[in-house]
Design a protein that fits this description.
- The protein has 3 domains: 11-168, Oligopeptidase f, N-terminal domain (Butyryl-CoA Dehydrogenase, subunit A, domain 3, Up-down Bundle); 174-307, no CATH class; 322-456, Collagenase (Catalytic Domain), CATH 3.40.390.
- The chain has a 3-stranded mixed β-sheet with strand order 3-5-4, with helices on both faces. Strands 1-2 form a two-stranded antiparallel sheet.
- It has 457 residues and is an all-alpha fold.
- 61% of the residues lie in helices and 3% in strands.
- The chain has helices at residues 28-39, 42-46, 56-86, 91-110, 114-120, 123-132, 140-148, 156-169, 171-183, 204-209, 214-230, 232-252, 258-263, 270-282, 284-297, 322-332, 338-349, 385-407, 417-437, 442-456; strands at residues 189-190, 196-197, 353-354, 366-368, 376-378.
Length: 457
């Protein structure tokens, strides 16, 4: 039996298929210089402790000094974590990522006095600062949000202690990432022709779970889940560590539960979360009907987990190159206007996207970057319809970031997770509409609708 080629090493990937992180820092040496500059700002950040309430000018200077440090810190972190995600086994980038995480926590610890001191300024005095000091009004919403979270803010020394604990309490998450992306090796499996082929995090869905051959799906599913089963104790320990971390911070900040602590920074009531869960639960019969239809169309006696992703339209074998996916996504976004499509195509041409899977690369997909950089995208493109929709989805995030950074100051150059998925899912809806409008093939239309339904499931 033939064996297919293993994943390429990072050094073997064509430059045009990689993201251009050199636009953040041309070399690691320049990253080191940036790291030193932020490290040297720590005394200046500490110098404002005890002085925020002295005058509006002092408060404004403290804000701007902190923003300068955080903006530079964001660029350092973006470069380090994306370099690491290219090849999670690369010890150089592991070290950069660990060091920037430590520096982030040092900055957080150094500025832990900030929120308690702002809350200690009498309301009338703060109002006078805002009225009298040019430039301070920019921070009005920031100050309002600090005041909103007053019940969960601790004294300065306790805030510093919590900030100091962050690196230690993140250990479970970092251990999981190293296990999942760098150390865990998946066994080879067989395709429908009986050839031994590599199983990877990137090709698991498109090549195997979407395969019309149930035996291929079953073998890949058992190989993937069996590998995780081999590390069940380690995975359970990392999950327990993460849960304990969340509970610890919720209790430390006097929240009734970890879910409230997670939602409050974005000012989302727990009732919104509860409503979402109850709405989903109330509509489970529709999901069950859909799964019954899937079972019938696939002509299965029993519907297994590995049968949930295969398209229900077997006569369509859909493949789309990355170049064609970019073209179709750009066409689908035309309703959003010329400025949007021009920026989208700029990103396609300027190497914002790290396209294909390679050995050690982080699985999945995301949009990342920071204020002052390009909004980069990590993909593990597999020439499937799902991969094309992932491109549309992640570029929705990146366009959201791009236009935010073009039109907002650093202070408000971000958006909450609660609204983040609006831009990305809109792109998916537009792509679905475009594809349906541009084919007369009934089977292909069914295939596209099947894909859209799967995004709900």
């Amino acid at each position: 039996m033939a064996t297919t080629t293993a994943l390429p090493k990072r050094s073997e990937v064509k430059i045009d298929d990689t993201w251009n992180l050199e636009t953040i820092f041309p070399t690691v040496q320049e990253w080191e210089a940036g790291f030193s500059r932020v490290s040297e700002m720590l005394p200046a950040l500490a110098a404002f402790s005890g002085k925020l309430g002295e005058s509006g000018e002092s408060l404004l200077q403290a804000f701007t000094t902190r923003d300068t440090a955080l903006e530079q810190l964001g660029r350092l972190y973006a470069y380090a974590h994306m370099r690491l995600d290219e090849d999670t086994a690369n010890s150089t980038y592991q070290a950069l990522n660990e060091r920037i995480t430590t520096l982030y926590n040092e900055v957080s610890t150094t500025t832990a006095y900030f929120t308690p001191e702002v809350l200690a300024i009498p309301e009338e005095k703060l109002a006078a600062f805002l009225a009298e000091v040019p430039g301070l009004d920019l921070y009005r919403h920031v100050l309002d949000d600090i005041n909103r979270q007053r019940p969960h803010v601790l004294p300065s020394d306790m805030e510093a202690l919590l900030a100091l604990s962050a690196e230690a309490t993140d250990a479970a998450s970092r251990a999981y990432e190293m296990l999942n992306y760098a150390d865990m090796k998946l066994p080879p499996v067989h395709d429908e022709a009986g050839n031994e082929v590599p199983l990877t995090q990137g090709n698991y869905l498109a090549k195997f779970l979407e395969n019309q051959n149930q035996g291929v799906r079953r073998e890949a599913f058992q190989a993937m889940l069996g590998t995780y089963q081999n590390y069940s104790n380690t995975l359970a320990a990392t999950l327990a560590g993460q849960v304990k971390r969340d509970v610890f911070y919720a209790r430390a900040r006097h929240y009734p539960a970890a879910v409230a602590a997670a939602l409050d920074p974005n000012n989302i009531p727990v009732s919104v979360y509860d409503s979402l869960v109850s709405t989903v639960a109330g509509n489970l019969p529709k999901l069950h009907r859909y799964l019954a239809l899937r079972k019938r169309l696939l002509r299965l006696d029993t519907l297994h987990m590995y049968d949930l992703y295969v398209p229900m339209v077997p006569e369509i074998d859909y493949h789309v190159s990355f170049a064609e996916a970019k073209r179709q996504v750009a066409q689908a976004m035309l309703p959003l206007g010329k400025d949007y499509v021009d920026a989208l195509e700029q990103g396609f041409g300027a190497r914002w996207i790290d396209v294909y899977e390679n050995e050690g690369k982080r699985s999945g997909a995301y949009s990342s970057g920071t204020y002052g950089t390009a909004p980069f995208v990590l993909l593990n493109y597999q020439e499937s319809m799902d991969s094309m929709f992932t491109l549309a989805h992640e570029m929705g995030h990146s366009m959201h970031s791009y236009f935010t950074w073009q039109n907002q100051t650093f202070v408000y150059g971000n958006y909450t997770l609660f609204v983040a998925e609006v831009a990305s899912t809109l792109n998916e809806a537009l792509l679905t509409h475009y594809l349906l409008q541009n084919t007369e093939d009934r089977s292909l239309k069914m295939y596209i609708i099947n894909h859209a339904l799967e995004t709900f499931r």
